[in-house]
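[recover] target loaded
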C-alpha cells in the first residue's frame, strides 16, 4: 500500500509540475500584452487606467473569503476551479469584450481565478513535498514556471514582431494553457485535508509589518499601473518591447532572487529594505525625468533600465516575510498575519491608482513618480524601525 501511495505521489508531482509549466506559459503570454491591449483596443486615458485597478485588485482583497466559499473542496480541486475561472476570463477578454463594461466583467473574472490560484499553488507544492524538502520542491516548481514564462514572452515578441498576431489569439492561447492546467489538476488525486477557514490576525506587535505592507501596496500599484503606461503613452512603445523587457527581467531575476535571499540572511531585513527604498527613489527619478536629463535618444534606455530594476526589486518583499518570521509570537501567527498583510496591501492598491491617474491628468506623469519617491522615502524611514532579532523557533515552512 505504501509503495502505491509513493507511486501515486510521484505521478501527482509530475502532473503538478506540468500544471506549473502551463500556468507559467499563460503568464508569459498575458503579462506583456494586457496594458497595450487596453491602449490599442480601448484607447483609455490615465484616469480610466488608474480606475481599472480597483475592480482588478478587489478579488485579491477578497481572496480569503472566496477561498472560504470553497472550503469544502480539497486544495487540488480549488486550484482546478481557479484555473477554469482564469481561462473563462482570458477567453472573455479575447472574444467577448465588445465594449468597455464587458472588458471590466472579464477582467474581474480573470482576477478572481488568478488570486484564488495563488495560495493554492504553494499549499499543493508543500503537500507533495518530502518532509524537510518543502523549500526545494517549491523552488523546482517555481523554476519550471519561470522557464515556461520565458517561452510565453518569446512567443509574444515573435508573434507581434513578425506575423502581426492579434490580441485575441494571445488571450486564446493563454486561456487554453489555463484549461490545460485544469485538466492536469483534474487527474491529480485530491489529498484529504483538515484545513480550516483561513482567518486574519491583527496584533499591536505586528504594526510595523502591517505598515510595511501599506507602503508595499502603494509602491506596487504605482509601478504596476503607471510604469508601463509611461512607456506606452510617453515613449510610444509596442507590445514587443514589454515582451523583450519581460525576457530580460525574468532571466536576470532568477540569479538575482538567489543572491537576494543570501543577502537577507547575511545583512538582515533592515539593510535590504532600506537599500530597496533608496534604489526606488533613483528609479522614480529615472521614470519621471528621463526626458529632462538631456540624454536624447538614450532617455528611453534609462526608462528600460528602470523598468527592469523595478521588476527585480519586487523580490525584496521576501524580506518583509522573513522579518515577520523573526518576530511572531508563535508559528501559528505566521500564515494569518501574512494573510492580513495581503489584505492590507490590496486595500491600498485598489485605491492608489485612481488618484495617481487624476494626478497624471492634472499635473503630468512626473508628479506621479514624485509621489512614488516620497512613498519610497517613507519606506526608508520604516526600514530603520526594524529591530533585528533572531527567530525564537525553527519554522521550516516559512518560505511557503
Amino acid at each position: 500500500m505504501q509503495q502505491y501511495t509513493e507511486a501515486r505521489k510521484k505521478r501527482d508531482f509530475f502532473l503538478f509540475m506540468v500544471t506549473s509549466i502551463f500556468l507559467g506559459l499563460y503568464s508569459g503570454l498575458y503579462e506583456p500584452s494586457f496594458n497595450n491591449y487596453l491602449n490599442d483596443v480601448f484607447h483609455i486615458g490615465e484616469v480610466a487606467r488608474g480606475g481599472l485597478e480597483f475592480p482588478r485588485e478587489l478579488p485579491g482583497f477578497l481572496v480569503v473569503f472566496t477561498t472560504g466559499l470553497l472550503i469544502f473542496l480539497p486544495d487540488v480541486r480549488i486550484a482546478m476551479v481557479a484555473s477554469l475561472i482564469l481561462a473563462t476570463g482570458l477567453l472573455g477578454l479575447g472574444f467577448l469584450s465588445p465594449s468597455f463594461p464587458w472588458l471590466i466583467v472579464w477582467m474581474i473574472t480573470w482576477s478572481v481565478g488568478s488570486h484564488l490560484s495563488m495560495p493554492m499553488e504553494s499549499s499543493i507544492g508543500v503537500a507533495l513535498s518530502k518532509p524537510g524538502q518543502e523549500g526545494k520542491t517549491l523552488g523546482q516548481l517555481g523554476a519550471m514556471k519561470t522557464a515556461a514564462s520565458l517561452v510565453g514572452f518569446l512567443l509574444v515578441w515573435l508573434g507581434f514582431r513578425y506575423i502581426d498576431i492579434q490580441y485575441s489569439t494571445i488571450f486564446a492561447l493563454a486561456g487554453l494553457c489555463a484549461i490545460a492546467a485544469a485538466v492536469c489538476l483534474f487527474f491529480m488525486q485530491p489529498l484529504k485535508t483538515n484545513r480550516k477557514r483561513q482567518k486574519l490576525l491583527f496584533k499591536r506587535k505586528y504594526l510595523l509589518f502591517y505598515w510595511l505592507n501599506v507602503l508595499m501596496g502603494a509602491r506596487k500599484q504605482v509601478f504596476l499601473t503607471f510604469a508601463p503606461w509611461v512607456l506606452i503613452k510617453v515613449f510610444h512603445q509596442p507590445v514587443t518591447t514589454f515582451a523583450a523587457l519581460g525576457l530580460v527581467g525574468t532571466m536576470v531575476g532568477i540569479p538575482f532572487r538567489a543572491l537576494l535571499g543570501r543577502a537577507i540572511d547575511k545583512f538582515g531585513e533592515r539593510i535590504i529594505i532600506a537599500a530597496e527604498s533608496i534604489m526606488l527613489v533613483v528609479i522614480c527619478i529615472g521614470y519621471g525625468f528621463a526626458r529632462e536629463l538631456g540624454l536624447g535618444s538614450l532617455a528611453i534606455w534609462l526608462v528600460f533600465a528602470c523598468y527592469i530594476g523595478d521588476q527585480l526589486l519586487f523580490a525584496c518583499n521576501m524580506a518583509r516575510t522573513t522579518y515577520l518570521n523573526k518576530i511572531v509570537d508563535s508559528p501559528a501567527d505566521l500564515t494569518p498575519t501574512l494573510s492580513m498583510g495581503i489584505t492590507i496591501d490590496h486595500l491600498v492598491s485598489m485605491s492608489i491608482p485612481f488618484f495617481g491617474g487624476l494626478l497624471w491628468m492634472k499635473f503630468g506623469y512626473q508628479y506621479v513618480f514624485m509621489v512614488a519617491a516620497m512613498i519610497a522615502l517613507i519606506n526608508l524611514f520604516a526600514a530603520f524601525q526594524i529591530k533585528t532579532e533572531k527567530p525564537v523557533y525553527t519554522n521550516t515552512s516559512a518560505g511557503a
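[recover] notes: Confidence is low (pLDDT under 50) at residues 390-400.
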